[in-house]
Amino acid sequence: MTDQLTVSVLGTGIMGAAMARNLARAGHTVRAWNRTRAKAEPLTSDGIHVCDSPAEAVRGADAVLTMLYDGPAALAVMREAASALRPGAAWVQATTAGIEATGDLAAFAREHELVFYDAPVLGTRQPAEAGQLTVLAAGPVEGRKTVQPLFDAVGARTVWTGEDGAAGSASRLKLVANSWVLAATAATGEVLALAKALDVAPDSFFDLIAGGPLDMGYLKAKAALVLEDRLTPASFAVDTAAKDARLIVEAGRQHGVRLDVAAASAERMERAAAQGHADEDMAAAYFASFDEKENEKGNENAKENEDGKRAG
C-alpha cells in the first residue's frame, strides 16, 4: 500500500471493530464511532480515534465504511453524519442491507455526492480479526484506487461484481451465499437435536460421513460450538442471522421464488433468540428444536452427548 487514507468506520461490533483494527495496522488513519461508545473504546489502544458522533467521525475522511445492523440503521447513521460528509468521498457500505435498502443507500450517496461502493463481506469473527474476509464489491472503476487498499487491509480476496453499486450486485451475491450458510447452520442444529432425541452419539454420524461428499468442515465446526458450550463470544449472532434470513426470504419473494428452507431458518433463529440465545453464535439455533423447559438444561444435554461420544 502506498497511500495512507483517513477512514471513518461507523459501527464497531464484531465485524466493524476487527475491520477498524486491520485498517489501522495497514497504516491508515482511522476514526471510529459506535452507538454505544463503551464498545468502541478498546480501539483506542490500536491508535484509533473514537468519536462522539458520526459527523465527527466522517469529517474530512477519504472513505467512510459502514458496518451496522441493517440498511435502515446504516441510512439513519449516515443522515446523522450528513453535514460533515465530504463530496467525492468513497462510501464503502459493508452492512448486509438487502436489495431494496441498498437502493435507498445509493440514493443517499448520490444526494450527497459520495462515490458509492456496495461492499458486503463474507466471513465471521475469526477471519475478520485476521484480515482474511472476502469482500464482495460493486462500484465505479475510477474510484477503486481509493477503496482497494481498504479492501486489502480487511480481506484476503476482493470479488468485483459490477461497476454500479446502486444495482446491488454485490449484495445479491451476499444473500445467495448467506442462504447456504444459514441452511447449513440450521441443518447442523437439527442433526444434533435428532441425534440427542434418538440417543445417537454425534461422532457416529461424523464418522459415517467422514471423507465423503457429505462431509463438511463447517458442520463439525458449528457442531463443536454446541457440544463444547462455546457459543460465546459469537462469530455470527443468532439475532443477526435471523435478520439476514428474513432479507433472503423477502428477496426471493420479490423475485417470484419461494424459499422454504430460508423461511424455516429465520423461524428457528427467531425462536432461539426468544429463548434467550440472541447474542450467542448462530449455532445456538440448535436450541430451537426443544421446548423452553428443555432449553433450561440445553447445554447440559449437549455436553452429555459430547461425553457419550468420547466414551464410545
What's the layout of helices and strands?
Elements: E1 6-10, H1 14-25, E2 29-33, H2 37-40, E3 49-50, H3 54-58, E4 63-66, H4 71-81, E5 90-93, H5 99-111, E6 115-118, E7 121-122, H6 125-129, E8 133-138, H7 144-154, E9 155-162, H8 169-197, H9 202-209, H10 217-227, H11 238-254, H12 260-277, H13 292-295, H14 298-311
Parallel strand pairs: 1-2, 1-4, 2-3, 4-5, 5-6, 8-9
Antiparallel strand pairs: 7-8
Describe the fold and architecture.
The protein has 312 residues and is of the alpha/beta class. The protein has helices spanning 14-25, 37-40, 54-58, 71-81, 99-111, 125-129, 144-154, 169-197, 202-209, 217-227, 238-254, 260-277, 292-295, 298-311; strands at 6-10, 29-33, 49-50, 63-66, 90-93, 115-118, 121-122, 133-138, 155-162. The strands form two sheets. A six-stranded parallel β-sheet has the order 3-2-1-4-5-6, sandwiched between helices. The protein has a three-stranded mixed β-sheet with strand order 7-8-9. Helix 8 packs across helix 10. The N and C termini lie far apart (53 Å). Residues 305-312 have low confidence and may be disordered.
Brief account:
Helix content is 52%, strand content 13%. The chain has helices spanning 14-25, 37-40, 54-58, 71-81, 99-111, 125-129, 144-154, 169-197, 202-209, 217-227, 238-254, 260-277, 292-295, 298-311, and strands at 6-10, 29-33, 49-50, 63-66, 90-93, 115-118, 121-122, 133-138, 155-162. Helix 4 runs parallel beside helix 5 (99-111), helix 8 packs across helix 11 and helix 11 (238-254) packs antiparallel against helix 12 (260-277).
